[in-house]
Fold this sequence. Notes:
Elements: E1 2-6, H1 10-20, E2 24-29, H2 32-36, E3 44-48, H3 54-61, E4 66-69, H4 76-85, E5 90-92, H5 104-109, E6 113-115, H6 124-133, E7 137-149, H7 164-172, E8 175-179, E9 182-186, E10 193-197, E11 201-207, H8 214-217, E12 222-229, H9 233-243, E13 251-253, E14 256-258, H10 260-272, E15 280-292, E16 295-306, H11 315-332, E17 340-342, H12 344-348, H13 351-363, E18 368-372
Helix pairs in contact: 1-11, 11-13
Amino acid sequence: MNIVVLGAGLIGKAIAVDLASEFHVTAVDIKEDNLDVLRDRKNILVRRADLTDHHTLEQLIKDADLVINAVPGHMGFETLESVIKCGKNIVDISFFAQDPFALDILAKQKNVTAVVDCGVAPGMGNLILGYHNNRMNVKSFECYVGGLPVTRTWPFEYKAPFSPSDVLEEYTRPARLVENGAIVTKPALSEPELMEFEGIGTLEAFNTDGLRTLLATMRIPYMKEKTLRYPGHIRLLKIFRETGFFDTNEITINGVPIRPVDFTSRLLFPKWKLGETEDEFTVMKIIIKGEQDNKIRTIEYFLYDRYDPESRTSSMARTTGYTCTVVARLVLNGDYREKGISPPEYLGVDENNLKKILTGLRQRNIHYIRTEK
């Protein structure tokens, strides 16, 4: 089978390598540097191309049995739409801001299976909630997640394990939560909490807009998603945001128009670049509370994953990318065939899907630990 991976960044590369162990893979990116690492890999063909060109994209995927969308979020929705128009099944991790269900009718007309938000978060949290929501009366859902460098380096004590431009969205896009059955909107970086994690220490959590499709697919009274960082990160990024460094409206400096966010990105991204062999980790805690068999139950899932020095693959690339590749195999093998837009909570309804995905991740040394009381 032939798979085309659109985007060969940190996570796209991990996806391509994992799938190449079993399939023929074409990795596509506009940056030669991203493709260089994959050039000598078995079963991987690299192609440099501008994926914003629909005709070029159409030619690249014409013989594909499945497409993986791993482009940055700002071009994710348009890329997904183009792939669906070509009638190709797709698994998407681009985490764009638009509503994926706007493409549901088109995907069904084209007889396309399109699994979106198929990473660690969003992704695994949705999948796990979809499973339990089908088996108990869920009253609340909380998801805390973050990817961080092991070594804390001043001034940011942070590195971006995925597209830095998508990281900035976490600090500016208003966060949608569910309280008492109603969707409420709060500023990003709001409602800080300090949380303790064994082996890590203290991290701070803040509101981000990570519920995404759950806002439409779930009827649960309380839901929230928060991002985890080292303490002090919230205050620092609030200073940047409130000063205007993340503004998208142009200002004029010495007669030259410039968007402050472009200037800020140029300064921040080199400092936030994760080193090829830099040790980092992903931590996620999911808390689901509800009723089942006339009993109040609290179910927790915990993930702690580190950089893999043997394969030289970052934890965020592993936890996000391998979730995508395991689901890709479900689609390729015919285990998941639903047409239209499918967020991960749709897959989670079927216990067999959850078991296969958790098993596939364990085979890649990614472990979700479940506790219950």
